[in-house]
Write a structure and sequence with these properties.
Elements lengths: L2 H26 L16 E2 L1 H4 L1 E8 L1 H22 L6 E4 L4 E7 L3 H11 L3 E9 L2 E8 L1 H26 L5 E5 L3 E7 L4 H9 L4 E8 L3 H5 L8 E9 L5 E10 L4 E2 L3 E8 L6 E7 L1 H13 L5 E5 L2 E4 L11 E5 L4 H13 L6 E9 L1 H30 L1 H24 L2 E2 L1 H30 L4 H33 L2 H34 L9
Parallel strand pairs: 1-19, 10-16
Antiparallel strand pairs: 2-8, 2-18, 3-4, 4-6, 5-6, 7-8, 9-11, 9-12, 9-15, 10-11, 13-14, 14-17, 15-16
Helix pairs in contact: 1-11, 1-14, 3-5, 5-9, 10-11, 10-12, 11-12, 11-14, 12-13, 12-14, 13-14
Length: 533
């Protein structure tokens, strides 16, 4: 082996070690020195089982998403038929996936044309004529139902991720689990009630006109509800400053505008001391709609409704251009901030419910860290001592490889911004075992060659050459198993798989490349007449 080759490999190894140490420092130093600011973000985060926090499994009501989809399309079909000058079209949802449409019999052809051109995802179940009206029962096709299910979960996942990002949780785990569930892990969050309220809030914002500000007779049933109306309750502040249900208002059921036009929502001080309002900005379509609504309804009350609760019902004094409105209510600063977050990140496409909930306290997390670290240190020290006693100088080299293996593994986790969990620690411990196995294979092969009377150089070369196939075979099969675990496993299993795969690659490099570099250097200098093994 030439001196130039040994020099280049040695410089490369030293450079790799230095880079690894620099990557590790932000994870162990607090605060991080200014000269390490360029790698400050490269930290190994602690998972929920180590840091403590909140674990939730949310179930998305995909069936409600389908029903909402049918409602929206039923309303759109009614508008399209009116645009085609069809008189008195009637469209309503009559089942989870079924809508019934009726038009005067002479417009049956127009109805057929509109359905074929604009609603291909509905299929006709039954057609009939009753009292001079053509009636059709329409059902969503199966492919569209599956698409809605998929879309509802994916949109919910993205909306929840956006809300949690704005909540400021470090290293959250948010991923799909199964067909309609979402796994949410929030390390460091010890207030699960606020997290659940923020995550699971449907946040359906609607603007509707107030028909009668005195809705109590309708709420109590003393008077029948007029057609096309509903009773909702206004939000007020109670005697102790808490939010409470206020008076009932009779509201027109027709939604004039929804929250999908909102582009921004911010918390601002209210007129009263310590009060808060939420200011919302709308896109161009929303600004145009809002101006039309306010312009045609001067001196009427406009109810701003969130999740079937009236937050405010201001009286319209004049046409309001510009696409800006405010939501008042009995808000604390935190409630106003959370409301702004859900409005800014959009409404959930379907309700979500808590299917499973666990809160891991910081004490349990600290115990897990201590126990995991103790098991790692005790096991590692025993292995290091055994290797030195049994293999002498070769054992020292193996110990060096083990230590560098851990350094490279942690550095790679930091570079990837990975989160360390208890299964991840288990993966590191297993990696150390695989690394020891590789060094044992090499040392035993060298011993065999020395017993055959070969020189130190020949024994080292033959030992590495004969051990390499067995090392690669065991590590490659384990690496492939780790890839499968990462591909199909959930959160903790993925953490185990990541540390296992990185550790296996690192162990092969340290055992085969770095220890061989030391042997080659000593042999090139004539300092090794025999191998201390």
């Amino acid at each position: 082996m030439s001196d130039r080759s040994i020099l280049y490999r040695g410089l490369g190894a030293i450079g790799l070690i230095l880079v690894s140490v620099i990557l590790i420092l932000p994870s162990v130093l607090d605060p991080v020195p200014s000269w390490l600011s360029f790698v400050e973000e490269n930290k190994v985060g602690l998972g929920l089982d180590l840091q403590g926090g909140t674990h939730l499994i949310l179930s998305v009501d995909v069936d409600e998403a389908v029903r909402s989809y049918v409602d929206v399309n039923a309303e759109q079909l009614r508008r399209d038929l009116r645009d085609e000058d069809v008189r008195s079209p009637r469209v309503r949802r009559t089942g989870d996936i079924v809508a019934t449409v009726s038009v005067p019999e002479e417009f049956a052809g127009t109805l057929q044309q509109v359905l074929e051109e604009r609603f291909p995802y509905f299929e006709s179940q039954e057609s009939r004529v009753e009292d001079g009206r053509a009636i059709r029962d329409l059902a969503l096709i199966e492919a569209e139902i599956q698409r809605i299910h998929q879309s509802a979960v994916e949109q919910s996942l993205e909306t929840i991720r956006n809300r949690i990002d704005q909540l400021g949780v470090a290293e959250p785990v948010i991923q799909r689990q199964g067909l309609k569930d979402i796994l949410v892990q929030l390390p460091g969050i010890q207030d699960p009630d606020r997290a659940k309220a923020l995550i699971g809030r449907t946040a359906v914002l609607e603007f509707k006109m107030v028909r009668d500000p005195i809705g109590a007779p309708y709420a109590s049933g003393d008077q029948p509800l007029p057609a096309g109306t509903e009773v909702l309750y206004e939000l007020v502040k109670g005697e102790l400053g808490e939010r409470a249900r206020g008076p009932a208002l009779l509201i027109e059921s027709r939604t004039l505008m929804t929250g999908d036009v909102i582009t921004d929502a911010r918390v601002r001080p209210g007129e009263l001391p310590n009060s808060r309002i939420v200011s919302i900005d709308m896109n161009s379509r929303g600004a145009r709609l809002f101006e039309e609504i306010t312009g045609s309804s001067v001196n009427r009350q406009l109810a701003i409704i969130l999740d079937d609760t009236i937050y405010s019902a201001p009286r319209i004094q004049e046409r309001i251009p510009g696409g800006r409105a405010i939501i008042t209510g009995a808000f604390t600063a935190e409630e106003a901030r959370d409301l702004a977050i859900v409005l800014r990140t959009g409404a959930l496409p379907a309700p979500v419910s808590i299917a499973e909930e666990r809160t891991v306290g910081p004490t349990l997390g600290a115990d897990s860290i201590r126990q995991g670290f103790q098991s790692f240190v005790v096991g590692g020290v025993l292995v290091l001592i055994f290797m030195v006693i049994y293999y002498k100088f070769a054992g020292v080299l193996a110990d060096m490889a083990l230590v560098l293996n851990v350094v490279f593994l942690v550095a790679m986790l930091a570079a990837l911004g990975a989160t360390l969990t208890l299964p991840g620690i288990a993966g590191i411990v297993l990696t150390l075992g695989m690394a020891v196995d590789a060094n044992v294979l090499i040392n035993e092969r060298i011993r065999e060659e020395l017993r055959l009377g070969k020189t130190a150089r020949a024994a080292v070369e033959a030992g590495y050459e004969r051990a390499l196939p067995a090392i690669l075979d065991s590590n490659i099969t384990s690496f492939l198993s780790g890839i499968i675990l990462f591909q199909f496993g959930s959160g903790p299993i993925k953490g185990f798989a990541v540390t296992l795969c990185i550790g296996l690659a690192s162990s092969v490099f340290t055992a085969v490349v770095l220890t061989r570099l030391v042997y080659d250097y000593r042999l090139s200098r004539g300092r090794m007449e025999t191998v201390s093994i």
